[in-house]
Specification:
Elements: H1 2-13, H2 17-23, H3 45-54, H4 59-77, E1 80-83, H5 87-99, E2 111-115, H6 142-149, E3 153-158, H7 162-165, E4 175-176, E5 180-181, H8 212-215, E6 221-226, H9 232-237, E7 241-244, E8 264-269, H10 272-282, H11 302-305, E9 315-317, H12 341-356, E10 360-362, H13 368-371, H14 401-416, H15 426-435, H16 447-453, H17 461-486, E11 491-495, H18 500-506, E12 510-518, E13 535-542, H19 548-562
Parallel strand pairs: 2-3, 2-6, 9-10, 9-11
Antiparallel strand pairs: 1-3, 4-5, 6-8, 7-8, 7-12, 11-13, 12-13
Helix pairs in contact: 4-5, 14-16, 17-18
Length: about 575
């Protein structure tokens, strides 16, 4: 097994190897007697395609192995809300297509999973909410139709933080009323600390998208969604590669929303090229989503043409203020942001690798809105309204984008379900939750739903518009774009997921690369004898609107040079 994984790593790092593999997709060959048995564990999509093309395995066999892994490890991880009962039949049909010389592309016969706020019509789409338990929507998400047309098999629906983490402050990541708590495969233990011992994971899974099953090799890759960090954070926390796209590159039609201002779907995978393959299949204009069609399509065959040399001459900016070093916003009493010594050491290593690969590190490349002295121009002082104190009358100093968008767009989504909708409005959902409190419908209450339902879509539109304009100004014009332009940068280098707030307000893309790990620093500390496991710690490349192709190139080259992906040892 170790020998096989070494071979795979060498193949992924060799320039042009993927294009050779794709050229052979439709060419069945005899199984070489001296080749080891194929396994899905840590296999890339190119590995799977090469094995199917050579006759070493089939899509059906790949699906079977993944289902066996789900059956074996799901009780410890709680990664899955549903599996596709037709997956094996779909795999056999795709194998037959291959035998007849038809291969749809790099996703042909590849099993993937979807966050369970993405519509499927052969499995429930619950959002993790008790009100939607067992609910099957009347139409399929656009991205699902596109993935299936590309030959992908939707194997499962992943667990998630309920309604993409817009229910209650204090709700643990990867908790929902339908499945309970999800666990990080890098430390799948419940938290033993007083006040935290409600069943939640001791090692945070991060965000509302689940990276659990992808990290544990339950499927080849998955599709998450992000409004404010839910692709970036779980990918970093479960040692995955991922792409948070520009808002509008991927259709949101058929996704349970928070706000159309920031929502997007994006791929989560073990390797950058695999994430790029999913994104290429998902993207494109859709008449059902007016935000789409603003970005040019990814270059054809981008994932197959990626080069380990793409960092040569690239200009990478290091925005020290807040992201690396703590800063005190104007009028504030204490500093915010910054890295621990261990995290700073990891980022120093990342920069050394980038320089060794020929990149130019521009240090420092601070964002003007992060260091602005005028409070009205400082992005750090304009966070989102989240909790009950930031409801009506208490929201003067926070952005209403999320709570207003949830009222507007959630009700629109419910309307799209027609007579099949389990509840007719956000108000009705809140009432259902209260009526089913004894069934754990709202174990952590529903403060975020409450402050959203206070909003009036018409009367509060002017406030939303003003906050949206300010968010765009501080995140784009005086934020990311200003730093990129001032220093003529290809990208900014961000530690872990630390850009999630400003990046999502801008609607800009990011590519996450697994890299290292750092000591878990829990407050209060774990009891004596309960040794904390380290937290995975990736790096993130961010850029301006529609810059995914360049970010993917840079991230891939860094991935090849750093070799940071490590599977969870407890789930071989």
């Amino acid at each position: 097994m170790k020998i096989l994984m070494t071979i795979r790593h060498k193949l992924r790092g060799r320039r042009g190897i993927a294009s050779v593999l794709l050229a052979a997709l439709a060419l069945p060959a005899a199984h070489a007697a001296d080749e080891p048995d194929f396994t899905v564990v840590e296999a890339s999509i190119a590995d799977m395609q090469a094995a199917m093309a050579s006759g070493r395995t089939t899509s059906e066999a790949i699906v079977r192995e993944y289902l066996e892994r789900i059956d074996r490890y799901e009780p410890k991880l709680h990664a899955t809300l549903a599996t596709n009962p037709d997956a094996l039949a779909q795999a056999r049909a795709l194998d037959q297509e291959r035998a007849e010389g038809k291969v749809r592309g790099p996703l042909h016969g590849i099993p993937i999973a979807l966050k369970d706020n993405i519509h499927t019509t052969d499995m429930p789409t619950t959002g993790g909410a008790l009100a939607f338990k067992d609910y099957v929507p009347p139409y399929e998400a656009t991205l699902v139709s596109r993935l299936e047309s590309a030959g992908a098999i939707i194997l499962a629906k992943t667990t998630l933080t309920e309604l993409a983490n817009w229910v209650a402050t204090g709700m643990p990541n990867s908790y929902n009323a339908v499945r309970g708590y999800g666990y990080n495969p890098y430390d799948p233990r419940p938290d033993p600390r007083a006040g935290f011992n409600d069943g939640r994971a001791v090692l945070d899974t991060g965000g509302s998208s689940s990276g659990i099953g992808t990290a544990a090799n339950f499927w080849a890759a998955s599709v998450g969604t992000e409004t404010s960090g839910s692709i970036q954070i779980p990918s970093n926390n479960t040692r995955l590669a991922a792409i948070k796209p520009t808002v509008g590159r991927v259709s949101r039609h058929g996704i349970i929303p928070i706000t159309a201002d920031q929502d997007t779907a994006g791929p989560m995978a073990k390797f950058v090229a695999d994430a790029a393959r999913l994104l290429a299949a998902m993207e494109g204009a859709d008449s059902e989503d007016p935000a789409t069609g603003n970005c040019p399509a990814l270059p054809a065959g981008l994932a197959e043409s990626l080069s380990a040399d793409s960092l040569k001459g690239a200009r990478i900016g290091v925005p020290r203020a807040f992201f690396y070093e703590a800063v005190t916003p104007p009028g504030a009493e204490s500093p915010v942001g910054g890295l621990s010594p261990a995290e700073a050491e990891v980022m120093a290593r990342a920069m050394a690798i980038l320089q060794a690969q020929g990149a130019v590190i521009v240090d420092r490349a601070d964002l003007p809105s992060i260091v602005a002295k005028d409070p009205d121009d400082n992005q750090l002082l304009f966070a989102n309204c989240y909790d009950l104190p930031q409801g009506k009358g208490g929201d003067a100093n926070c952005s209403v984008i999320l709570k207003y968008g949830m009222k507007r767009d959630f009700n629109r989504w419910l309307d799209s379900l027609g007579d099949t909708a389990p509840v007719e409005s956000l108000t009705a959902l809140r009432e259902f939750n209260l009526a089913h409190r004894d069934q754990n419908a709202i174990r952590y209450d529903q403060a975020e739903l409450d402050i959203s339902d206070e909003m009036d879509v018409e009367q509060d539109k002017a406030r939303w518009r003003a906050d949206r304009d300010k968010d765009i100004r501080l995140s784009r014009t005086e934020g990311i774009d200003a730093a990129l332009k001032a220093h003529e940068l290809d990208a900014l280098l961000i530690p872990s997921w630390r850009s999630e707030n400003i990046l999502n307000k801008a609607g800009y893309p990011a590519v996450i690369v697994p890299f290292a790990e750092v000591p878990s620093e829990l407050d209060p500390p774990l009891p004596e004898g309960f040794d904390p496991q380290p937290m995975p710690f990736g790096v993130t490349f961010i850029g301006t609107a529609c810059s995914e192709p360049r970010l993917i190139e840079l991230a891939y080259a860094f991935e090849q040079a750093s070799d940071g992906r490590r599977p969870p040892a407890a789930f071989p």
